[in-house]
Amino acid sequence: MTSVTGILRAVYGLAVMLALAAGGGGAAPVRATILPSLVRTQEIECALVVRFEIDAKWHLYWQNPGDAGVAPSVTLELPMGWKQLGLHFPRPQILGTHSERSYGYETSLDVLVELKPPPAPLPESIDLTATIKWMACKEACVVETNRISCIVPAGVQPVPTPTRARAYPTRLPAGFSATITRKTDTGAATGALTLEITAPTATLAGRGALFIPDDCPGIEFVAGIGPVPLTQSGEKSSARIDIAVHPGDASGAPLRIRGLLLVGERDADPAYEIDLNPN
User: Fold this and answer.
1) For residue range 18-36, what is the model confidence (pLDDT) as tens digits?
2) Residue 59 has what DSSP assignment?
């Protein structure tokens, strides 16, 4: 099954390529740089920071861009023994309208590129090259590629203060839960599931919470790309999200149900990862 969102993204991507082929001028609305130190966070032992500075009224995209767009990508050429793992994006902003929702970033964005160092002892520095690609959008979109070579000290430091403070997602804290149940009612389709997220109302402290789904191959969030609010009922706040599983659309990738629970409305408010096996 091909989702409507997938079709929209394909059409959007074609439109962008045609716009690029037509050419354009002016200074690039986004600049990418590599910060001169490796960092660690609560969840990540070692990472490189790629910083994007974004002009006013432009935006970049989260790893699940929503109805349209493409997330930034980073590919590293590293010395022998070093390995690039995943990219880690901070809490995104909710952009667009209900009819064309997207998730992304304005002003600035720091992407953490997780690394696995070789066994100790480590060298004093590493010589690396990064190929960085991104799509930036305003009324129209541009796609840019930057190739940066640099030498970075191998010592790991705390994450530096970003241009715009954003929370990086962490695991669900105590008292929060995310569970999967299989629908058993007569009208339920094969592979129909429900994701239920609960949080202590007192912990939310009146800030409210929203769930936004990640881009999960083979997983369809039936109500669309969200966001889905948690509804308060006494001491608990919860949301129930219908899911359809289409293993044939996963292209061999493991099936996972992933997303973020956003507490509050500020960039620096907590964001919690949800990552479950549907089987």
Assistant:
1) 444 334 456 899 999 999 9
2) B
Domain 170-276 has CATH 2.40.40: no
* 130 has a pLDDT exceeding 80: yes
What is the residue whose two structure tokens read 């058993």? 184
Using alpha carbons only, what angle is made at residue 47 by residues 120 and 86, rounded to the nearest 5 degrees?
110
Q: Comparing 4-13+30-158 with 170-276, is the CATH topology the same?
A: yes
Residue 12, token pair as written in the block: 């959007």
pTM for this prediction:
0.86
Q: Identify residue 31 by its one-letter amino acid code.
A: R
Where do the domains of the chain lie? 4-13+30-158, 170-276
**What class has domain 4-13+30-158?**
mainly beta
Which residues, 6+ apart, have CB-to-CB distance to 199 below 8 Å? 175, 176, 209, 230, 236, 237, 238, 261, 263
> CA quadruple 223, 228, 233, 237: dihedral positive or negative?
positive
Which tokens go with 228? 């889905």
